[in-house]
Amino acid sequence: MNPLLELKNLTFHAQERWILNIPEFSIHKGEFLGIMGPNGAGKSTLLKQLACLESPTSGEIYYEGTSIPAGGAPIELRRKFSIALQQSLLLDGSVFYNVSIGLTLRKVPKSIIKEKVNHWLELFGILHLAKKNALYLSGGEAQRVNLARAMIVEPEILFLDEPFSALDFPTKIKLMEDFKQIMADTKTTAVFVSHDIMEIHYLTNQLAIIVDGEVKQIGPTTQVLKNPNASTQSFLNEWKKFYPLAR
Fold this sequence. Notes:
This protein has 247 residues and is an alpha/beta fold. It has 9 helices and 10 strands. The strands form 2 sheets. Strands 6-7-8-3-9-10 form a 6-stranded mixed sheet, sandwiched between helices. A 4-stranded antiparallel sheet has the order 2-1-4-5, covered by helices on one side. It is globular, with a radius of gyration of 18 Å.
């Protein structure tokens, strides 16, 4: 199977140092790929490169075998991607308004927008909040709106940068349960950056470990966690002390 998204000989330099050095990296359709690594390893920078939010210093990025221009991805390609961050960054307006923004920008008819927004609000269990101002939501509610807003445009690839990390444990577990089911039902390809091995173990089916800007190990999540190589063993063993189910 050909990769959906692929990096070749990619480097990224910033603040007088090399942040990334990745000879080859690929994502296939239907994968839920986790990215883990120590603080400062380059996880979020890699996600930004994959999502075409930053241009590499050198190297190529391919989508379905076609090279993405160095100056930035065209709007047609950007609309195939969606992103959800740790901070929900909701606008002053109703929950309905926030979730509808992507469809409104795509000039989708209002009748279809209403149908789709209600559908996604229901999937995320927040239909009853449709008229509430998004600035007055709890952390868990806000993140559900954030994820619904990202999913409503039916992205080819969903990029997630630690969307659960700021939530308290019970809220996190319930949202992850609902989100895992939604991802399974939609079969959406996703790239998920997290510092938490519990989140990675529960949600992803592929895992890449990045250390000092280099991908040191990649493969099925369970396999990587159970059989770390020499470059990733120290990092993963530290995490397994706190999450023994990943042993």
